[in-house]
Amino acid sequence: MGTRIACCLLLALIWGFPAVSVLAKPVDIYFADVGDGNATLLHQPGKCAMLVDAGPRKYGDEIAHLLKERGIETLDFVVITHPHKQLYGGLEVLFDSMKILELSDNGDMNESEDGYRKYSELQFHLPYSVLARGDSWKCGDMRIKVVHPSVAFAGGGDYTSRALALLVEFNDFRFLLLGDVSANGEERMLRSRQDLNSMVLQFGAGEENRISQTLLERVQPKVVIISGARPGRELVDQLLSHKIRTFATAEEGVIRMRVAENGNIRLQP
Asked: How big is the chain by its Cα radius of gyration, in Å?
């Protein structure tokens, strides 16, 4: 984990991967540093921009700046993986600063959460849909699939067990956004026996500060991105033991990943 992106970012993922073609039509993925929250931007310039979670409200201006910097004036899709203020708060700022074509979440309600009323009002002001396993759509040349939760999975009192998990496919590139899915939800997702094999895996460090061996064996990631809290030594050692390159927004700040049309990836400043 000690390798700093600032000094070797451009070469970080070349080892073990072929060079990116200059003729490729790339997809850029940005993992924003939004404290204990999450905000992941998928952008194929001129085709589609999708934001998965919007971070806490206090980071809304920073996300808006990131979008403006990339020339993004419209978000084709915004997906809130579950109703928590660390994930939907920034949307209040973005709603006032840009056009949002569709808002989706897992359909859960969390009326006791700070700011939830304002978030729920956006569901009436924007085209809104509820997602579950089996749903899929296109964002430019990317295909987005919902791999968790199923419609029938209730989750009990553990509402993070029903957080959305998304699989992004771009030609041969596959990227699993696990987000805040808890161990209970992770177990249920693995039971579905879907093909989860992905080059890149993203998740939040969370309270448990762990990820199951079974999931790592199913996904077989080459790269892990940890959003939110700084990962503990146990988690870092676990990932190193699998020879997985690991980066954390809490240590690196905003992480940008460029995906070439042939599926090769490179991290950039």
From this structure: 17
